[in-house]
Amino acid sequence: MTSRRRDCCAYFSALALGWLAPGFVEATEAKQAPLILVVGDSLSAEYGLARGQGWVALLEQRLKEKKLPQRVMNASISGDTTAGGRARLGALLTQHKPSVVVIELGGNDALRGLPLAASLDNLAAMTRAAKASGAKVLLLGMQVPPNYGASYGREFAGLFERVAKEEKAALLPFLLKGVADRPDAMDWFQPDRIHPLAKAHPLMLDLVWPKLQPLL
């Protein structure tokens, strides 16, 4: 073997060893770790909060603290509706292949007065698509303020229960339980009275966690 050829072999061997260094192996393992995909609106997108204060970021921290292998991808967009989530979910499933999909959508449908039947259809379609891809699904339900009327409030809350039952998905009935329904609720919301303050997000995670943990 010529000197030049030996040098080339040594170079590529060293390069290969570099690729297999601990940092590279850890990065590869992280990439292959099971993925939790969160598809939501501003309640999950850290609207009005400093980065890292939202419940999804806190979920990522909890997984690390518990030394669980799952990683989290937050695909939430402020202002998104069930129709918007449905339109973009297919590409997310194909690209990221999550093991769990958390769907937190519907609040903006109510705020915009969109037909409840359409919201139901969109949530059901998203749940079916996620399950067809091999993922488990957790629906995070929402409720509307009393001024929407008791009948509308029951029908809206019932959307999530119906989808969860018919599509056999896990359900958290109300993501803001213990926040929006407390006596001092206004002290837990931003000035718009829609988006919770940072101090509310650990409570939100504590609600999500018992429903999510069995799916991991």
Automatic annotation (TrEMBL):
Which part of the chain is the SGNH hydrolase-type esterase domain? 38-201
- Signal peptide range equals 1-27
Instruction: State one Pfam family annotation.
Output: Lipase_GDSL_2
| Keywords annotated in UniProt | Signal
UniProt cross-references to InterPro entries, sorted A to Z: Ester_Hydrolysis_Enzymes (IPR051532), SGNH_hydro (IPR013830), SGNH_hydro_sf (IPR036514)
Q: Which CDD domains match?
A: Lysophospholipase_L1_like (cd01822)
Indicate what this protein is called per its UniProt record: Arylesterase
Q: Which organism is it from?
A: Roseateles albus
